[in-house]
Amino acid sequence: MIDVIVIGAGLFGSVIARHLTALGYSVLVIDNKEPTAGSRAAGCVIKPSWLTNFGGSLDPCMDLLKLYYQVHTVEFTIHPSGFKTTCGRIEPGDILGGPHINDHISDVRQYPDRVVASGSVGDYTAKRIVVAAGIWSPELYSCDVSAKLGWSFRGSPIPNPVIDTWAPYRQVVAFNMSDGRSWIGDGTALIPKSITPERLAVSQARCSAKSGATDLQPTLGARPYAVTTAPCLVAENGRAILATGGAKSGTVGAAYAALRVAAILRGK
Ligand SMILES: Cc1cc2nc3c(=O)[nH]c(=O)nc-3n(C[C@H](O)[C@H](O)[C@H](O)COP(=O)(O)OP(=O)(O)OC[C@H]3O[C@@H](n4cnc5c(N)ncnc54)[C@H](O)[C@@H]3O)c2cc1C
Fold first, then answer.
1. What is the pLDDT of residues 8-18, one digit of tens each?
2. Which residue has its alpha carbon closest to ligand 1 atom 50?
3. What's the gap in Å between 223 CA and the centre of ligand 1?
């Protein structure tokens, strides 16, 4: 029998699966490719200021990320001050896109010796299950997960990485990815009814003006966050473990969750 089924191949499910596999567990990942999954829009930037959300030491999270992925260093020029700041980033494709089955899981049933996840393609049986399904997690595990939505953009290459504050706690972050095209986000956090063509046009114009990139192609994503235990949610109920959240800090949040899930499986 498989040791662990992971539902969701976003940042959380992918990092958890990578870590558990490295620890020697047999792992099956299942994902249904939701078009607004947060990870599809993520730049996987690791900003030092976001790390404080997690409290305690973040060294183990960064150590885990560095063990499995190449953490690139990006030196951003901050506008309008001209100061410099250094952030980490991981190429999203390095984390996402691991092996998984494409199926929509609609039900999880627990038995004394196993857990069964039912999908449209088939049933999957394992000793334990990890629900890392982002904002869709409550459909499979009773929990209080919500989300704010936002766009990121891919555009023409830019000359230098830029962070430009446009409102309190709101910044345009822009850099070039490994394929040469830029990634730009403006940190907007919207509820679903605010997702309108007008708001998209505003974000697009802001990101273009502040980064200098043209030909911006948008991706809409939902950033899941734990309503009561922000920013990250790792919980256990019998053979099921919930792991999602992270809000804007999904990359380091995923590492935090992977460490917690591994500890739960070890009985700690
Ligand atoms: C515009 C934008 C920019 C961002 N930039 C960054 C950044 O630079 N750095 C950073 O650290 N974070 C960033 N984030 C935040 C980050 O994307 C999220 O915190 C992260 O995606 C949460 O990961 P997750 O795996 O919990 O959820 P998700 O990424 O939403 O993944 C959940 C997965 O579960 C699958 N799924 C759902 N239900 C089912 C089901 N029933 N059966 C099978 N599969 C299912 C979905 O298809 C999906 O792939 C950004 C987010 C947005 C929106």
1. 999 999 999 99
2. 42
3. 6
